[in-house]
Specification:
The chain is of the alpha/beta class and 301 residues long. The protein folds into 2 domains: 2-222, Rossmann fold (3-Layer(aba) Sandwich), CATH 3.40.50; 224-290, Alpha-Beta Plaits, CATH 3.30.70. It has 10 helices and 14 strands. The chain has helices at 42-49, 93-104, 108-121, 136-148, 166-178, 192-198, 216-222, 235-244, 264-277, 292-300; strands at 2-13, 16-27, 31-35, 57-62, 65-66, 78-81, 154-158, 184-189, 201-206, 209-215, 227-231, 250-252, 255-259, 284-288. The strands form 3 sheets. The protein has a 6-stranded mixed β-sheet with strand order 6-7-8-3-9-10, sandwiched between helices. A 4-stranded antiparallel β-sheet has the order 2-1-4-5, with helices on one face. Strands 12-13-11-14 form a 4-stranded antiparallel β-sheet, covered by helices on one side. Helix 2 packs across helix 3, helix 3 packs antiparallel against helix 4 (136-148) and helix 4 (136-148) runs parallel beside helix 5 (166-178). The protein is elongated. The structure holds adenosine-5'-triphosphate. Adenosine-5'-triphosphate is lined by residues 13, 18, 36, 38-44, 190. Belongs to the ABC transporter superfamily.
C-alpha cells in the first residue's frame, strides 16, 4: 500500500513553472530519498504534501486522505522536520517537547513517558541543559524527537543533514535508519552518498518532473555501466597498453578506463592475458561499479 500519492500535481510561482507534473507514490515502510539539484522544487513539494503550499492542479493523498491547503487533517499522521528548525533556546529539551506535545494535543498522562522515551531514541540527555548550548547535530536530533511525538506514519525531513559535519551527519543517518520499518520516511537532500547509505527507494526530481522513482538496486541494474580501471607506471606505458587493447580504453594520464558488458571475470582475463603477453604490467586493476552519483548525473544531464 502507498502512504503517499501525488496525482498530476503542478505548481508555479508567478510565471515560473517549478513543478510541471508530479505523479508518483511512496510505498509504506520505505525510506525514500528525494533528491534534486538546488532549486529543483523539493521543499515546495514537501510543503504541498503538508498543506503549507497551494497546489495549482492535481491532488495529493496521505494515508488515503486528501491533503487540503491550510488545514490538512492528513497532517495528523505526519511528522515534519523543516530544513531550519526553530527553537526557544532558553528551554531544555523536555520543556520544549512538553510545549510541542501540549500544542499538538498529545494526552497529558502519556506525554511525560513519551518524552523520556523519545529523548532516549534520539540519544539526547534528559537533564536541564538548555537548547542554546546544543550543537547543530543535537538540534536536528531534537527536531526528530519533536516530529515523532504524534506517532507519525510518515516522517518528512527536509535536507536534514546539509548543515551537519561528517560525524553529526553519520549519527543522524544512523538515527533515521534505526526508525526503518516503524514508519515511512521521506528525506530530501543533495548529498548523494546519504541517499545511498540509508534509502531503499530514490526519487530524482529534475526539470519539474520525477525522472526516476525506484529502488537503488533496480536503478543500479538499469543504469549499469561497469568499468575496469587500470593504472600504469607512466602515461607512455598506458598509451602502449591502449594500442594493444585496440584503443578500446579511455586514457586519463597513466590510467586506462574500459567499459565492459560481459562478465567481469571474462573481460578482466582477456585484458590481462593481452597485457601480460606484451610485458605491460599494470600497477593496479580495479572493478568500478555504477554509483548513485553516476546515475544522478546521467538522469539530470
Ligand atoms: N514562495 C515562493 N515564491 C516564489 N518563488 C519560490 C517560493 N518558494 C520557492 N520558490 C522558488 O521555487 C524554486 C524551487 O524552490 P525549492 O526551495 O522548492 O527548491 P529545493 O529543491 O528545495 O532547493 P534547495 O535544495 O536549494 O533547498 C526556486 O527557484 C525558488 O526560488
Amino acid at each position: 500500500m502507498s502512504i503517499l500519492e501525488l496525482h498530476n500535481v503542478k505548481k508555479s510561482f508567478g510565471d515560473k513553472e517549478i513543478i510541471k507534473e508530479l505523479d508518483f507514490s511512496v510505498p509504506e515502510g520505505s525510506i525514500f530519498g528525494f533528491v534534486g539539484e538546488n532549486g529543483a522544487g523539493k521543499t515546495t513539494t514537501m510543503r504541498m504534501i503538508l498543506g503549507l503550499e497551494t497546489i495549482d492542479s492535481g491532488y495529493i493523498k496521505v494515508n488515503n486522505k486528501k491533503v487540503h491547503y491550510g488545514n490538512s487533517l492528513a497532517n495528523r499522521v505526519i511528522g515534519y522536520l523543516p530544513d531550519v528548525p526553530e527553537y526557544y533556546d532558553y528551554m531544555n529539551p523536555s520543556e520544549y517537547l512538553t510545549l510541542c506535545g501540549n500544542l499538538t494535543g498529545v494526552p497529558k498522562k502519556e506525554l511525560s513517558n513519551r518524552i523520556t522515551q523519545l529523548l532516549k531514541t534520539v540519544d539526547l540527555p534528559i537533564n536541564k541543559k538548555r537548547i542554546s548550548g546544543f550543537s547543530r547535530g543535537m538540534k536536528q536530533r531534537l527536531g526528530i524527537a519533536q516530529a515523532l511525538l504524534n506517532h507519525p506514519k510518515l516522517l518528512i525531513c527536509d535536507e536534514p543533514t546539509s548543515a551537519l559535519d561528517p560525524i553529526g551527519r553519520s549519527e543522524f543517518l544512523d538515527l533515521l535508519a534505526s526508525l526503518r520499518g516503524e514508519m515511512t520516511i521521506i528525506f530530501s537532500t543533495h548529498i548523494l552518498s546519504d541517499v545511498e547509505r540509508i534509502s531503499d527507494r530514490v526519487g530524482i526530481l529534475d526539470d519539474g518532473i520525477l525522472k526516476v522513482n525506484d529502488t537503488l538496486d533496480n536503478l543500479k541494474n538499469d543504469y549499469s555501466k561497469p568499468q575496469i580501471v587500470l593504472d600504469f607506471d607512466s602515461e607512455n606505458t598506458a598509451k602502449k597498453a591502449n594500442v594493444l587493447l585496440n584503443q578500446q580504453a579511455y586514457q586519463d594520464n597513466s590510467q586506462l578506463i574500459i567499459d565492459y558488458r560481459d562478465s567481469y571475470q571474462e573481460s578482466a582475463k582477456s585484458i590481462l592475458e593481452k597485457l601480460l603477453k606484451s610485458g605491460l604490467i599494470p600497477i593496479s586493476l580495479n572493478r568500478q561499479l555504477t554509483s548513485f552519483e553516476d546515475i544522478f548525473t546521467e538522469v539530470t544531464q
